[in-house]
Specification:
Number of strands: 0
Largest sheet: none
Membrane topology: Multi-pass membrane protein
Structural class: mainly alpha
Radius of gyration: 21 Å
Distance between the termini: 47 Å
Number of helices: 10
Keywords: Cell membrane, Ion transport, Membrane, Sodium, Sodium transport, Transmembrane, Transmembrane helix, Transport
Protein name: Transporter, SSS domain protein
Family: Belongs to the sodium:solute symporter (SSF) (TC 2.A.21) family.
Organism: Leptospira interrogans serovar Australis str. 200703203
Length: about 250
């Protein structure tokens, strides 16, 4: 049973990877905005399928580079997050180093611009904060992301890499997002739509906290936190619906 909670246990890695991908490349605001920019539903479907194929080969490339670096550097004392940068600085010729840095910056800017746009849209439309313009909100979230980019310097303990740390943080919030999506697509979970705003907010807000407690208590990997978050949010929603119905019947 202990193997079920250890890092990179194959069955939980497959399950958690599928659900995490559903959250980041299916119902995430940033990805949805890109899909809505397509001309038609068929174009959006083609874009999602093409993205999945591209990401698959992209991760094959990343993992292959990691395996090669593992065999190239056999010194376990080198921090995992500094192996690739060490290789670029010490082994790659100068012209190619410049192209690699430019590619890394271009990729980061593309993702950050989409993230800032998504956060600004959510703030303006969903949170009904309309007194500020789009430029002001974009500047605000840009500064927040700039400051949050410094957090890994204080959060990393040497045992986890930045990639695993980032996936762990996202796994705390992906569960409620997927739960909301399932409540609109699967009839068995339609009861979530009957919750009042206060009860729905409570279920969605408590889920990341309980997921964090579960992860710290069991020491499980981020791949197991995603299904736990989904199940917790749906269970909280069902329990709060019973309380809501009982309170309504007493009036």
């Amino acid at each position: 049973m202990d193997r079920f909670f250890i890092r990179l246990f194959f069955p939980t890695a497959i399950l958690g990877g599928i659900l995490l991908t559903l959250g980041t490349h299916g119902v995430d605001q940033m990805f949805v905005q890109r899909i809505l920019a397509c001309r038609s539903e068929s174009d959006a479907q083609k874009a999602m399928i093409s993205s999945g194929i591209f990401v698959f080969f992209q991760f094959v490339l990343f993992l292959s580079i990691g395996v090669l670096l593992y065999f190239y550097y056999k010194d376990p004392s080198i921090p995992k997050d500094k192996v690739f940068s060490k290789f670029i600085l010490e082994e790659v010729p100068s012209p190619i180093t410049g192209f690699l840095l430019a590619a890394i910056l271009a990729s980061a800017m593309s993702t950050l611009s989409s993230s800032i746009n998504s956060l600004s849209l959510t703030t303006k439309v969903d949170l009904k904060i309309e007194q500020f313009g789009s430029g002001t909100l974009s500047l605000f979230w840009g500064m927040i992301l700039l400051l949050s980019s410094l957090l890994p310097l204080f959060l990393t303990t040497g045992k986890k890499g930045l990639v695993e740390l980032g996936l762990s943080i996202s796994s705390y919030t992906v569960g409620p997002i997927i739960s909301i999506f399932l409540s609109g697509r699967i009839q068995s979970f339609y009861y979530m739509q009957k919750l009042k705003d206060s009860f729905a907010s409570l279920a969605i807000g408590l889920t990341p906290i309980l997921t964090l407690i579960f992860g710290k208590w069991t020491g499980s990997s981020f791949t197991l936190l995603v299904p736990f978050g989904i199940g917790t949010c749906l269970l909280l929603g069902f329990s709060l619906l019973q309380i809501q119905n009982r309170l309504t019947s007493q009036k």
